[in-house]
Design brief:
The chain has eleven helices and eleven strands. The chain has a seven-stranded mixed beta sheet with strand order 1-2-3-4-6-8-11, with helices on both faces. Strands 5-7-9-10 form a four-stranded mixed beta sheet. About 40% of the residues lie in helices and about 15% in strands. The chain has about 260 residues and is an alpha/beta fold. It folds into two domains: about 200 residues, Alpha-Beta Complex (2-enoyl-CoA Hydratase, Chain A, domain 1), CATH 3.90.226.10; about 50 residues.
């Protein structure tokens, strides 16, 4: 396994076996993010889809206390500056058609923008010490950076509203029970578990994964089920059906071997 590593001011990145692990690295501030961190992470999320050796992204937080505690209010009080990247909190929450699958590996507190970041990912794996909250109403704000919009889609309106309107904390066991989290593991197994999920995605055809993700999200915005079922409404649908990987997948199945994906 060849691993590439980089470390910048507010993040660390490792890439191996088609999997990029992006670690928010402000553990002295519970991985809360300030303007410079938002812009740095935006550049990373911009770059990852251009790297041919990246097929899946895992997002996690440094340390064992927090995934991300949200916006760094202490920095805001010190500087008087509150600013996000054009692509939203962590440079990611404002994106609606990110081409790579993204898994949140939540290792502790995911509050405010941190919870919104986890919700912006495609699914969540959590340590049994993880906790989630949108506490914005308790400080006079509203979770308009994706929390209010995405949480009802993830768990249904009624369950979402009791979390949104109270600002209460949801612990890992409840998050799993309501379908917010796909798996709960011990903290020392979190990254291994997320890697295992990511490896299952890497084993699939890249175009097929991108089409599946795109169609699933787009279906929410189509007027009815008939429109969602119409392949003409999914730009990558016919491309996947006609792709070289589509032929390779059938051939590999018949020949009882592992497919050799080309991404075409």
């Amino acid at each position: 396994m060849t691993m590439k590593e980089e470390r910048c001011d507010f993040h660390a990145l490792t890439i191996a076996d088609g999997i990029a692990i992006l670690t928010l690295d402000r553990s002295d501030r519970m991985n809360a993010l300030h303007p410079a961190a938002h812009h740095e992470l935006a550049a990373v999320f911009d770059r990852l889809p251009t790297l041919p050796d990246v097929r899946v992204v895992i997002v996690t937080g440094a340390g064992d206390r927090a995934f991300c505690a949200g916006y760094d209010l202490k920095d805001n009080l010190e500087t008087g500056v509150m600013e996000l990247a054009p692509t939203g909190f962590a440079g990611f929450n404002g994106r609606t058609d990110y081409p790579l699958p993204v898994i949140a590996a939540v290792n502790g507190m995911a509050f405010g923008g941190g919870f919104e970041l986890a919700l912006a990912c495609d699914f969540i794996i959590a340590a049994d010490t993880a906790s989630f909250a949108l506490p914005e109403p308790r400080v006079g704000w509203a979770a308009l950076g994706g929390g209010i919009q995405r949480l009802p889609r993830a768990v249904g309106m009624k369950r979402a509203m009791d979390i949104i309107l109270t600002g209460r904390t949801v612990h890992a066991a409840e998050a799993h029970a309501i379908g917010l989290v796909s798996e709960i593991v011990r903290p020392d197994q979190l990254i291994n578990s997320a890697r295992s999920w990511a490896a299952q995605i890497v084993a699939c055809a890249p175009l097929a994964i991108r089409c599946s993700k795109q169609a699933a999200y787009a279906s929410f915005d189509l007027p009815d089920l008939a429109a969602a079922l119409d392949i003409a409404n999914h730009p990558l649908g016919q491309t996947v059906m006609d792709s070289a990987d589509g032929v390779e997948g059938k051939r590999a199945f018949v020949e009882r071997r592992t497919p050799r994906w080309s991404g075409r």
